[in-house]
Amino acid sequence: MTEFEKMRAGLLYNCRDPEVSAGYWRALALCERLRGAKDAGERERIVRELIPRMSATARVETPFFCDTGTGTELEENVHVGPGCVFNDTGVIHIGANTNIGANTNIGPNCQLCTPHHPLDAELRKQPVQYAFPIRIGANCLLGANVIVCPGVSIGESCLIAPGSVVIRDIPPHSLAAGCPARVVATLSGTASERSCTGDTRKGRARELCARLETLSPDEEEFTRVLHELLPGMQTHAQAMPPLVCARGDNVLLGERVFANYNATFWDENRIQIGSHTLLGPCCQLAAGPLSFQPDKRACDISIGDDCWLGGGVTVWPGTHIGDRCIIAAGSVVCEDIPPDSLAAGSPAVVKRRLAQGEERACAQGQEPSRMSEVQKMRSGLLYDFADPEIVRSNVRARRLCARLEKARRSEQAAILRELVPNIPDSVHITPPFHCDHGHGLVLGEHVYFNADCVALDSALITIGDHTLLGPKCQLYTPQHPMDYKGRRETKESAYPITIGSNCWFGAGCIVCPGVTIGNNCVIAAGSVVCHDLPDNVLCAGRPARIKRRLA
C-alpha cells in the first residue's frame, strides 16, 4: 500500500511521504488564498477548488481551514458555518440535509478532527500518525464549538449541543451534550424540523467581518467598520478581530464591553451584553439557530454588567447570566446563572457566590515602585495593561499576526522570527495564530501549533521539544481581579505556563494561568487544564483529570 492509501485506511502512515505532503501543501496554499480573497464570489470559487467532493448545493462559510480538502465529502444542502476546522486526512463525510430551508448543519467554530497521533511519546517524535474517518448522518445539526474526535460516527437526525466533545458514536435521532458528549434524549422527527425558523444570515455581516481582519484596531477605519457591523454597541465598547457574526444588528454591547480574539456572536436572535463585561478569546455566544429545548421558544442571550467570561466559553441559546458573574475558561453555559456567581464546567454550575469586596487583584505582595509595568507583568504582580510600552507591544503582535495570516508560505518564517524572538527553525505554526506579545513565547525544537491557536503570553509560555498542539488550542496567562470593581480598572496579573517535552494536546484544549504540565503527557480534545500535571499521564475533561498513566 502507498502511504496515502494507509492514511485513508486508518493505518500508521508517514506524514512526510511526497504524495501525502503534496495534498497538505495544496490545501495550505488554497487556504492562504481563501484568507486573502476579497469578495464572496472569489471565496466560493476557492472553496470549491479546495473541496472537490462538495455538492453543488452545499455551502462552506469562511474563515475555514482543512488539511487536504480531498478528504471532505459534503452532500446536498450541507451548510458549514464560519470558523470551522476540518482535519480531513481521514475522510469526513456529512450527509444530506433534506430540509432545504433549514439552518446550519455544522455550527460556527466546530472542529472535525480525523488525525490521531501515537500515544507513545518516542513514536510521536517521528513523522507518523493515524487518521480515522468521521461520518455524520443526514439531517444532523451541530451547535457552535462542537469537537468531533477521530473515528466517530453520528447517526442521522441528531442534535449535538454547543460546546460538546463527541468521542464515541451517537445513535440516530439523539440529542447529545457534554464533555464527553452523552445522549440525553431521543428525538422524534428530523433535526431539521426542530431548528429555529429562518436563515437570517446576511452577506453584509460576512463582508464586514472580512474587512475588519484587514485593518488594525488603532485605525479610524477599523472603528467605522466595527460600528457598521455592530450598530448596537456603545461608544467605548471594543471587539478584536477576527470576529464572526450571523447578522451583527442583533448584538447589543454595553459601555466598555471588551471582546477578545475570535469571538462568535451568532446573533440570529438577540445577544445583549451589559456594561464593563469582559469576554476572553474564542468565546461562542450561540443565540440560534438551534433551540435544544423544543418547548422554549426564546433563543435570546443576555449577560449582565461587570461579568468576566474566560477564554473558550460557550453560551447556549436562551441563557441569561446575571450581573458580576465569572465564568471559568472553557465552560459551557446552558442554564441561567444568578448574579454574583463563579461558575465552571460543562455544563457550567455555580461553584460559589462572589462577595463584594473580595481581593481586587491576584498580586503577590506589594508592587515594587521602581519596576516597569512590563517587569511587573513578567513577575506575576498586578500591572497596568494600558501602560504605553505594553500597548505598543500588543499592537505590534496583532499586526504581525495579521500579516502572518495573509502571508504566503514562503513569507511566514520571516514574520515568525520577527514575532517570536529566538524561535527555532524547526517550529511550525499554522496560521491563523494569535498572541499578545510574541516575546513571551519560549519554544523548543519541533514544536507544532495547528491552525487557529491562541497564546496570551503576558507571562512566559514555555513549551518543550516535540510538543504538538491541535487546532484551536488556547494558552492563557492573564488573570483579571475577582472583584468586579477591580476589573473596571486597567489592571490584571499574569502567571506563567510551562509545558514539557513530547506532549500532545488534542483540538480545542485550554490551559489556564500558572499551570505546569510535565513531559510526555497527552491532553484529550476539548480539555481544560487548570491544575498542574505530572509526567507521563493521559488527561481529559473540564477540568482535566488524570485518566491513566502512560508507559
Protein model, in words:
- This protein is an alpha/beta fold and 551 residues long.
- The protein folds into three domains: 3-191, Hexapeptide repeat proteins (UDP N-Acetylglucosamine Acyltransferase, domain 1); 203-353, UDP N-Acetylglucosamine Acyltransferase, domain 1; 380-549, Hexapeptide repeat proteins (UDP N-Acetylglucosamine Acyltransferase, domain 1).
- 18% of the residues lie in helices and 27% in strands.
- Strand 53 and strand 54 (545-549) form a beta hairpin.
- Helix 2 (18-36) runs antiparallel to helix 3 (40-50), helix 5 runs antiparallel to helix 6 (220-229) and helix 8 packs antiparallel against helix 9 (409-419).
- The chain is globular and about 65 Å long.
- The two termini are 30 Å apart.
- The model is unreliable at 191-201 and 360-366 (pLDDT under 50).
Main attributes of the structure:
UDP N-Acetylglucosamine Acyltransferase, domain 1; globular; alpha/beta; seven-stranded mixed sheet; 3 domains; about 550 residues
Please give a quick description of this structure:
With 551 residues, the protein is of the alpha/beta class.
Please bin the fraction of helical residues: 10-25%
Looking at CATH, the homologous superfamily of the largest domain is Hexapeptide repeat proteins
Task: State the CATH topology of the largest domain.
Answer: UDP N-Acetylglucosamine Acyltransferase, domain 1
Query: Which quaternary structure do these chains form?
Result: single chain
Strand proportion, as a percent range, falls in 25-35%
Largest sheet: 7 strands, mixed
Question: Based on CA inertia axes, which overall geometry fits?
Answer: globular
